[in-house]
Each structure stands twice: as C-alpha cells, then as structure tokens.
Amino acid sequence: MKGRTIYPGTVEGEAIVSKEPIGFYGGIDAKTGDVIEKGHELEGQNVKDKILVFPMGKGSTVGSYVIYGLKKNGVAPKAIVNKETETIVATGVILAGIPCVDGIDIEQIKSGDKLKVNADEGTVEHG
Predict the structure, then answer these.
(1) Would residue 64 show up in a list of annotated catalytic residues for this protein?
(2) Model's pTM, two decimal places?
(3) Active site residue: 18, 60, 64, 111, which one?
C-alpha cells in the first residue's frame, strides 16, 4: 500500500488497529503505553513496540507531547499508520522520531497482522 511519508524510517512489527480516532491526551498513558480512554475499542491494550494503525488523531494539541513522552519513556509504538495524519499526530511523530505514513487504506489491516512500514518510501506491506 502506498501512502505519504510523515516521518521517515523503516520498521517491521505487529499491528494494533483501531477503527476509531485516537486522542493521545487522556487516551494513552505516556508512562506505560496503555490505552486508558474509557470505552475506546483499544482500552486496556498497550502500544509499546507495536505498529499503531488508526484513522486519525483527535483532541488536544497536548497529544503531540504525549507521543513524545511515549518515546522518551521507552513505551512508544514502532510506527504509526493513518488514513489521515492531522497536525497533532504529525507534530508528535516528528518530535519523537517515530516513522509515520498516512494515506493508507487501513481497512485492509487487522490487529496481529505483521507489517513492514517503509516510511522512507511511504509504503506499508503485509509481512
């Protein structure tokens, strides 16, 4: 799948997929990587070392710093793949140095899938 590079890098890993937008501020614990947003489909799961796939971010601009905090605390996802990366997520992945690609048809990806993210080329491939 071909998309657009938001931040470069190449990684392989296991997908964790949300069909719902993710709000990092109040949605993911920057110290643990746990999804803490009440009622979110990923509530109770952890993003550490996963390829986090979701349509787009939502909520406060403080979310950018939560993404940076995840990286600083060693609990960040290996990469982020979006349908549309908006400003909050884009700023966060750039601050944190997390490979990110958008413009991807995320409907084709399921949690547990093995993915290769080549954000240098803007591509996402199944394992």
Answers:
(1) no
(2) 0.97
(3) 60
